[in-house]
Amino acid sequence: MTARDALDAAVDALTAAGCDTPRLDAELLIADALGVDRAALVMDPSLPVSGAAARLIGERVRRRVAREPVAYILGRKGFRRISVYVDGRVLIPRPETELLVEVAAGLPDGSRVHDVGTGSGAVALALIDERPDLVVSASDASSAAVEVARLNGLDAISFSGLPPGDYDLVVANLPYVREDEWPGLVPEIRLFEPREALVSGEDGLDAIRSLVAGAPPGTRLALEHAPDQAANVRALLSEAETLPDLAGHPRVTVGQAR
After folding, report:
1. 116 near 170, Cβ under 8 Å?
2. CA pair distance 80, 98, nearest whole angstrom
3. CA–CA gap between residue 92 and residue 78 (Å, rounded)
4. What is the pLDDT, as a whole number, of residue 125?
């Protein structure tokens, strides 16, 4: 068997399963199983596939056919300039969440930043990587998520909401999916990602409201949310401004707790 044989079979199986990006998924799974990067696989599809690699590819393709996300199958996800370990205890970091990093990266030297609902620790770890002068800490209300963040090397983390402290900025990617949206989400999310990290009440804003209400007056917050929640999130804060993500959707609102 060659890599081309494995790739063709995998693409057919993933296409039939309804995966959105069957070729990309197949290339990532097979390249990793062969111990090469994706570019090498594309450039030389005649690479030989050993029996052990073929069995690993088969197992991974079966998991993807069941709609398990590629990031969980490989156990990692790229975010900004880093790669973090992920499993079913935490959300898979999304590109739109990088906007939180960009907001915090604009702070003066030595600023104190706290990441609430850190999950895998991706936002806090990206800030530590890009702005080592910042004082970065994080927390999560899920003890399982805290375990994953620690596996990723995030030491300044606590099992809580927003710990007491004097922060120059609090960033948060909290649950913001509405209860009625959950049944309609794609299988990759609904069957594999932790529901408690996604769903937050009838309008999706319970967790955000709780954070804002518990923050000391004047605390500056950067809050990720769904595009159609922007006006409601601005109403929770003073001096609020909503920033667009790379797709142009209103995604992060920055303002002060009242």
Report:
1. yes
2. 7
3. 10
4. 98
